[in-house]
Design brief:
The protein is of the alpha+beta class. The chain folds into three domains: 123 residues, no CATH class; 231 residues, no CATH class; 58 residues, no CATH class. Strands 5-4-2-3-6 form a five-stranded antiparallel sheet. A three-stranded antiparallel sheet has the order 1-8-9, with helices on one face. It has a three-stranded antiparallel sheet with strand order 13-14-15, with no helix packed on it.
């Protein structure tokens, strides 16, 4: 640096008097070499940051509310100043392996720098001060939901199987202690500690012909259930699909079970009318069916009020921003999914399927104040972290319940496709259909090939189904050179 001649004139340092008067004075002092000038510039930067620290440091000690945004900004500015000073000081912390020509480092300066930059109380100096900066910054800037996660509790209402499924038992018992209700257009989640409160034999008065209150009917049938618990419950023995068992008897037993389900799942008629030689053929056809049904049956309002007063029923209204909105477009995606779960179109052509394994969470309010986004001061509905503030959807103490449940999209089973991927037979079938189409439409089909080469950025060739070239040529664009008078 000092070897550069006329370093002030050649612009080794860019200094403007109106930006920094102190540095301008240093720069104009002809007694300083280039390296001495640089060192004084660095010292001047450190002095400025230290002066700023003195101005703001005393007030920070008195801060107790760390959630206030103004206080956060003050603390962050203070820490940024410290970090900037330490970043400058780090320029002087040189590793001994970097010293050339047999030079040495002053041990006093080396130890002093370590004490400033690192933790002075530790002999090995392994803890970097900048990690503490990150920890404080992360604490001050953490989002409301970070605290919410700590306060959020999963509820099971003393039932380990709560919301594991939606289907009632064959006896009509609410085996998973939860069910969906409708009151007009509103949806409610019901929780009970009495699984038999909707047993039709024990409580026939619970069901009426007409009512605003309705309870969801959930029916699902799959191969695991048919060949597992249902078969064993019907015939008091396990289903065994092997050669030692009479195949006709197995097929007849399964068809007998399916006959009882035909009113709910009419697609079973085809299987009942089809002749099978092997039981595994019937099992394969059942596995390819998606037997799923949801509907609603009328429930007595008086009966619901009675069991609620007895403490045997908890009702939680299901609410989301657009769930009961009359607007037809712009709704939340989760609301669109939820509404389609029970639509007639979805039942006729299954796309969305309600699953078990739901969860209920409880948490306290995450934010005590509503922070309006900048630029929206006169629009109080635009709130940062609104989900975590107190609102009408929570109880009077700012508490809230969250209801999470999974759904399956594109739930209908497609023959030859498993877990969204086609198997070998399906791929073969698609290829056959495609090749047959090409053969039948051969007179009207043309094939376009585009390739790149050394002489052409793109070259095309159009042929018919007989392999005859219809057209070919380069797709290169001519180079245009614009001059004052014309384009060549």
């Amino acid at each position: 640096m000092d070897s550069v001649e006329n370093w002030r004139e050649v612009g080794l340092f860019k200094v403007k008097a109106y930006e920094d008067e102190a540095k301008q004075i240093i720069f104009e002092n002809t007694e300083y070499s280039a390296s001495q000038t640089l060192l004084r510039f660095i010292v001047e930067d450190i002095k400025k940051e230290l002066d700023q620290l003195k101005k703001t440091g005393d007030g920070l000690v008195k801060i107790t509310d760390y959630k206030n945004q103004d206080n956060k900004d003050k603390i962050k500015a203070y820490l940024d100043s410290i970090k900037k000073v330490l970043s400058i000081i780090q320029y002087f912390s040189v590793n001994e392996s970097k010293i050339k020509n047999g030079g040495t480092l002053d041990p006093i300066i080396v130890e002093a720098l370590k004490d400033i930059i690192f933790e002075p109380i530790l002999e090995n100096y392994e803890i970097n001060w900048f990690k503490w900066y990150d920890a404080v910054r992360n604490y001050l800037t953490k989002k409301p939901q970070d605290d919410v996660k700590e306060n959020k509790l999963k509820l099971n209402f003393e039932s380990s199987s709560l919301l594991e499924g939606w289907a009632d038992s064959p006896e009509g018992n609410t085996q998973y202690k939860a069910f969906l209700l409708k009151n007009g257009e509103k949806y409610l989640l019901g929780i009970t500690n009495k699984p038999k409160i909707f047993d039709k034999q024990l409580h026939p008065n619970a069901f009426v012909e007409n009512s605003e209150w309705k309870k969801m009917i959930y029916k699902q049938l799959d191969g695991k259930t048919i060949y597992g618990s249902t078969y064993k419950g019907e015939f008091d023995k396990k289903y065994l699909d092997n050669e030692s068992v009479n195949q006709k008897d197995l097929i007849q037993n399964v068809k007998k079970m399916l006959q009882n389900k035909i009113t709910i799942f009419p697609e079973l008629k085809e299987l009942l009318n089809k002749e099978y030689n092997l039981a595994k053929e019937l099992a394969a056809d059942i596995a390819n069916l998606t037997m799923y049904y949801t509907g609603f049956e009328n429930i007595s309002k008086e009966y619901l009020e009675q069991i609620q007063k007895e403490g045997n029923l908890y009702l939680l209204e299901i609410y989301s921003k657009d769930l009961y909105s009359i607007k037809k477009t712009g709704k939340d995606l989760q609301v669109i999914y939820f509404n389609n779960l029970f639509s007639e179109n979805n039942l006729n052509n299954l796309v969305y399927k309600l699953n078990g394994k739901g969860e209920i969470f409880y948490r306290k309010i995450g934010l005590k104040e509503r922070n309006i986004k900048k630029g929206y001061e006169n629009k109080p509905w635009v709130i940062k972290g609104k989900r975590f503030t107190d609102s009408s959807t929570k109880d009077s103490k700012g508490k809230q319940f969250f209801f999470h449940f999974p759904i399956t999209i594109n739930a209908k089973k497609i023959s030859g496709v498993r877990d969204g991927r086609p198997n070998g037979n399906a791929i073969k079938k698609v290829n056959e259909i495609f090749l047959n189409y090409l053969e039948s439409e051969s007179e009207n089909l043309y094939y376009l090939g585009i390739d790149r080469g050394e002489k052409h950025l793109a070259y095309y060739c159009l042929v018919n189904s007989k392999g005859e070239i219809i057209s070919q040529g380069s797709l290169n664009l001519p180079l245009s050179i614009k001059t004052e008078n014309h384009v060549q």
